[in-house]
């Protein structure tokens, strides 16, 4: 094989050409945007797109992710027919209040986003990110938020559904909280954690809180999320049975 010496200029040209042919190295992933960045809204496909799928990631806000574990919370509310506007205004009000608390680092609120479902009229979603479980409990106990929970009751078709996720270094973990929904068609089946689908060694850790079922006994413990006597259910939008 004949070797040909290349001048500095020729070698530079070859290096540039070779580099242009190599696939670009993937950029290191940025820290995920917080609550709104991970909210997968169900968007209508644009006209002429030829797509009938629902899933589309929509980033509506960017919040720098802190190292360590945070608590990601998703809440869903469905308005009674004719009560959509009242529920929308109440949701907007508490969302505005919650976003104002982001500036106060001691509050522990990192993000609070409100979205309206494009496919189910009158269905609203909160996606919230907190520095810790304690910060979420404190926010849920705030008078402004407890008043919101009281006011929305007359406008809701069913219960408020809530799912918690562990959010670690910008990555969402599986849904998890203390408490469980058992039985055929329940969360065990939905998450594959029953003894047949997930294996007998798998532990059920997922559940959904029904925020509207709050007992009023003063001696009752406040619970992990600042809510007294919460019960658990799987909301309709996750495949649960309607009440």
TrEMBL record:
Source organism of this protein record: Chlorella sorokiniana (Freshwater green alga)
Keywords carried by this UniProt record: Monooxygenase, Oxidoreductase
Molecular function in Gene Ontology: monooxygenase activity
The protein, known as: Antibiotic biosynthesis monooxygenase
SUPFAM superfamilies, alphabetized: Dimeric alpha+beta barrel
Highest taxon in the source lineage: Eukaryota
Taxonomic lineage from the root: Eukaryota, Viridiplantae, Chlorophyta, core chlorophytes, Trebouxiophyceae
ABM domain residues: 71-164
Region (Disordered): 22-54
Composition bias type Low complexity, residue spans: 32-49
